[in-house]
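Sanity check

After download, print the first record. It should look like this:
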Amino acid sequence: MRCRARQTLGRVIWHTLTASMHGTTSLWRSHRMFRDSHRARQRATRAQPPAGIGKRSMRDGGGIVVSGQRERRVRISRPERFLSHVMGRRGGSSAAIHDLARPQEAQAAVAPRIGLALGGGFARGIAHAGLLTAFERHGIPLHCITGVSAGAIVAAAYASGTRADDIARVGCSMRFRDVARWSLCRMGFMRSERMKRFLEGMLKTSRFEEMRLPLGVVATDLCTGEPVSFRDTGDVFLPIRASCSYPGLFQPVHVGERMLVDGAMSIEIPALLARELGATHVVSVWLQPPPCRRPPADVFQVIRRCFQIMQGRSESGWRHESDLIITPDLKSIEWNGFEAGPELVNAGEEAALAALPAIQSWFSGPALAATTVCGSVA
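Expected structure tokens:
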């Protein structure tokens, strides 16, 4: 029996060399022969198949994870290990082989895990509450939620267990002075310490590990320009303040040795972070900025317009990671339009209702093959 296994293994090596020149057919023949050889050696020696350990660093777009990292253990059969090694020699990837070997039925049987990624927009972020209200009313389950800037506030509140209609109520009564105060200095015009008190009254917990849903918050390292992702463990208030620190308006926030500013500087919508938190389907909510109809009239409008231009040139990454993009119709509501709270909530709710058929199709049919955009932007 052992002699036959060694002979079979020799033929496998020959066909493997042939596969590099003749493609997948020879490679698949090698796979079958190796499988037969493997079974023969198991019967002869009762060898135990080894367990492989896959370790993947939880990073967002090449950024840095400040909170705890998760490890994933996977058991790999010997034929898969062999094929992964061969493809590695030929310049391929083991992930492609793993997808090839995994039955299609198993992929289809996995229930959708929806991740919601919320973009920024300051007062316009109140629209996120309307969207969540519609999701709650129609029973759309969320696996995780991520956010930057104003989206980080809404995401953290919802992940902590605060109901969507309560978030909407607080948003409609909110004013700029509730989260900021004037404090002219060389690093910015305003300080954000008041935001902590605002968050304490809005969130039901202050720790990532105590959240009802997995939560991810993104800020930007002002020195390196890298996105900094907060998740899994640790205090949530300081990361949210950092993610909302609009450059030039708010002073940067120090977290450890890092100086952090608005997360939208590096990632406009944290769709990739939602996928890394376990989502199979990512819904991104983009609060499209109002069109520029006249030249900026003050320094704040100059900063905001520069911000919009930069984001418009670097938005392709999050779109690629999104299965569905929802764009509420916010017309000409400005970034500080808190008085338009009810209108913002209604706009978010209407956009969510328009997206419901696409989301519900994930639970009854094949996943969407391309990004779908709902709202006023096609």
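If your output differs, re-run the checksum step. Summary of this record's structure: The longest strand covers residues 215-221.
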